[in-house]
Specification:
The protein is α/β, with parallel strands linked by helices. The protein has helices at about 10-20, 70-80, 80-90, 125-140, 160-165, 180-190, 210-220, 245, 255-265, and strands spanning about 1-5, 25-30, 40-45, 60, 95-100, 110-115, 145-150, 150-155, 170, 175, 180, 200-205, 210, 230, 235-240. The strands form four sheets. It has a seven-stranded parallel sheet, sandwiched between helices. α1 links the parallel β1 and β2.
């Protein structure tokens, strides 16, 4: 198949390489030059996307990320790009379009359990914009659209966690956090090509929610720092489970984030 990636960052590159190795033809759209020899790279602004000069596209992955996390950044990246992308794709025989969104669309914040069947209740404008983006693609491609909602992506750097460990002396409450290793995310996105009966939505997570302060404490232990003090037993965040992901037969290779953090730690 001819597979198009709209947005070509760390996750896209991993997915594209896997699909190329499976025999698919890969074309990418990005705003800066790319050098991977397994793909044809086009430099375009997605807000003025032109796909008239390339061969028919079978599958599409949309993986965009804003340069800033402001409301304006989300609006420009996720909403303003939809119409030109849809217009450019309409002339192609799209079988599926996989849109990478975020679990930010779930607004729960008291430790609730979330899975693929949970209702969507965004509580901030960024979450509402992500949900609006999902709906726009679903309206444009009602039979072809697959929404994926990854939890926090990790696996490329531990610099942020080290900084948190060094600067955190107290933590306000028990805040549940969720994550997915970037390699597992990429493997699942590539795995979707082989799923016979696809659903229209998949959460992507390692199904191991953890209180964030416990992760920070682990890094403090590695750094021989005094461990933070938890100020209260108040619970925030949410516990997210990717039930449909596992139903496809997909198996995680990175279920334990501490094993991954240790491997990354040893490479420093």
């Amino acid at each position: 198949m001819h597979i198009l990636f709209i947005g070509y960052g760390k996750t896209s590159r991993r997915v594209a390489k896997q699909l190329f190795e499976q025999g698919h033809q890969i074309t990418t759209i990005s705003q800066s030059p790319k050098t991977d020899e397994f793909a044809t790279h086009l430099i375009q602004d997605v807000h003025q996307l032109n796909l008239t000069q390339i061969k028919p596209i079978d599958w599409v992955y949309v993986l965009l990320s804003p340069s800033q996390s402001s409301i304006e950044g989300y609006q420009q990246t996720y909403i303003d790009s939809v119409a030109p992308i849809v217009a450019a794709l309409k002339q192609h025989p799209i079988q599926k379009i996989v849109v990478v969104s975020s679990t930010r669309v779930y607004g729960e914040n008291k430790g609730e359990r979330i899975d693929d069947a949970s209702c969507i209740q965004p509580v901030d404008e960024q979450g509402r914009l992500l949900r609006q983006m999902e709906q726009l693609y679903q309206q444009a491609f009602p039979k072809q659209c697959i929404i994926t909602r990854p939890t926090g992506i990790y696996g490329t750097s531990i610099a942020r966690m080290i900084k948190l460990a060094e600067s955190t002396r107290t933590y306000a409450n028990i805040h549940w956090s969720n994550r997915i290793h970037i390699d597992d995310l990429a493997r699942f996105l590539a795995h979707l090509i082989h799923v016979e009966h696809l659903k229209n939505l998949y959460i992507v997570s390692n199904n191991q929610p953890l209180p964030l302060h416990e992760i920070i404490q682990w890094f403090q232990q590695q750094l021989n720092l005094a461990e933070l003090v938890l100020d209260s037993e108040v619970v925030s965040g949410k516990r997210i489970y990717a039930t449909r992901m596992l139903e496809t037969g997909f198996e995680l290779e990175h279920a334990d984030c501490f094993e991954d953090y240790l491997q990354m730690w040893e490479k420093i």
